[in-house]
Amino acid sequence: MSETKHEKIIEYIESLSIGSKISVRRIAKELKVSEGTAYRAIKEAENIGLVSTMPRVGTIRIKKQGKGNIEKLTFAEIINIVEGTVLGGRGGLHKTLNKFVIGAMEIDAMVKYIEKDNLLIVGNRIEAQKKALELGAAVLITGGFDTEDQIKKMADEKELPVIQTAYDTFTIATLINRAIYDRLIKKDIVLVEDILVANPDYLTLKATVADWKQMVKETTHTRFPVVDEHMKVVGIVTTKDVAGADLSCSIEKLMTKNPVTVTLKTSLAAVAHTMVWEGIELIPVVENKKLIGVVSRQDVMKALQQGQKQPQVSMTINDAVLSGFKEEEIPGGIRLVGEITPMMTNHIGGASSGALMILLTNAAYAALRKAKFLDTVVENVTVYFFKPVQIESPVSVEAKILDMGRKTGKVDLTMYCRGNIVCKSLLSAQILDR
User: Fold this and answer.
1) CA angle, 141 then 65 then 114, to 5°
2) 2-57 has CATH 1.10.10 classification
């Protein structure tokens, strides 16, 4: 079975030491699989954070980063960010750097700032490069300069990467800061790994309705994933599935086959949307297709509501657009009032449709929150733009609830600019309840 081969390759990659170089040909030869199978498995390993692939370097085994140190970058990731080339010290590409130091000073002054696992960003200064390596720091050489063989040899011996890039120092610092900032935004996003129930209760294909009833009695839960002999999720069983069935009846015959599953890196927003659309209460969490946990609708609800109460450290585009707008209550809904900023404009100086959509959807969410519905997902949006809105124009969005049910809500949205209607929209949303 190709799936079994796929799992074996992932397990083999996990067994390799950190820093090991990985190739499709080597995997195919050692595990006796096709190069296509090896390639797909390596890509999966990259998706789950086991390996990193770099131009002109190849694929290497790296240490999986926890969410707590997500703002730290490995030297392998630095190469991708700066489009660099490794001149020496390939054995240390998997290491994580603590901070970077710009070498725009005399060497005596520079050594005060350089520590172990730092990255020194410097130009064609051999003595500075040598001193950094002696202090346990890697080196990033800007301007496309090469370095001497003695530096490359020292880098190999100490397993500290020496990287070459064509960019200048300012650009490099900007790129690295941008990468760290993007990671901080990701850190604020709640993922399945943050809330899953690990080592969940489950049933096997050999289980019967009697086994299900016994597990319900022991756990007080009624929904369980069903796994095969390899711990792969093959189904899910609920009260509805077993209703009226004989106690000796096999769970395999009654379960819902091929259930929706998620991974550790799936966002809670995506899980919430899936639960609403599929009408399900429990989703198994898998890694390499094997069961490692579950998330329930109630867990998702609690986490989303808790996230709304937390102060946000990093600002997303959504936050940036809304930061200049204030919310006012009006009969039957709310109004957002603010001004079109340069960040919200397109290439010809008018308000971009994306920024205007952010205003419309968030006004709708605000109106639904006013109606005591905290968590909603957009089902459908119909938008008509009548007139362009130019930069620095005052705009307001009025959101009024047209219809409200137990599971859905419809919101009428009107955008004004200097008293003129510039946009009309109808948004329908599904309400995520417990």
Assistant:
1) 35
2) yes
Q: For the domain made up of 193-305, give the CATH fold.
A: CBS-domain (3.10.580)
pLDDT 10s per residue in the chain (434 long)? Answer: 345 677 788 888 888 877 788 888 888 888 888 888 888 888 888 777 788 776 656 787 776 655 444 456 788 888 888 888 899 998 888 888 878 888 877 888 888 888 888 999 998 899 999 999 999 999 999 989 999 999 999 999 999 999 999 988 888 888 887 777 676 656 667 788 888 888 899 999 999 999 999 999 998 889 999 999 989 999 999 999 998 899 999 999 999 998 999 988 888 878 888 887 788 889 999 987 889 999 988 888 777 766 554 444 445 677 778 888 999 999 889 999 999 988 888 777 788 888 899 999 999 999 988 887 666 778 899 999 998 898 889 999 999 999 888 788 899 999 999 999 999 999 998 876 65
Tokens of 373: 């519905």
* Domain at 67-188, CATH from 3.40.50.10490, 3.30.930.10, 3.40.1390.20, 3.30.420.40: 3.40.1390.20
> Of 389, 395, 299, which is closest to residue 346 (Cα–Cα)?
389
* Three-class DSSP category at 49: coil
Beta strands in 21-179 (DSSP E): 21-22, 51-54, 58-61, 85-88, 100-102, 119-122, 138-141, 162-164
317-431 has CATH 3.10.129.10 classification:
yes
Closest listed residue to residue 393, CA positions, set 420, 412, 414:
420
- The DSSP symbol for 316 reads -
CB 20 within 8 Å of CB 61: yes
Give Cβ neighbours of residue 238 (< 8 Å, ≥ 6 apart): 222, 223, 256, 281, 282
> Do strands 119-122 and 138-141 pair parallel, antiparallel, or not at all (unpaired)?
parallel
Q: What residue ranges of the chain are covered by domains with CATH 3.10.580.10?
A: 193-305
Token pair 């792969």 in the structure block, residue: 232
Tokens 């079109």, residue? Answer: 340
Please list the alpha-helical segments (H only) found in 50-98. 75-82
Tokens, residue 33: 């699989």
Residue 417 identity: C
DSSP for 266-315, written as a single string: -BHHHHHHHHHHHT-SEEEEEETTEEEEEEEHHHHHHHHHHHHHSPPSS-
| Ranges in the chain annotated CATH 3.10.129.10 | 317-431
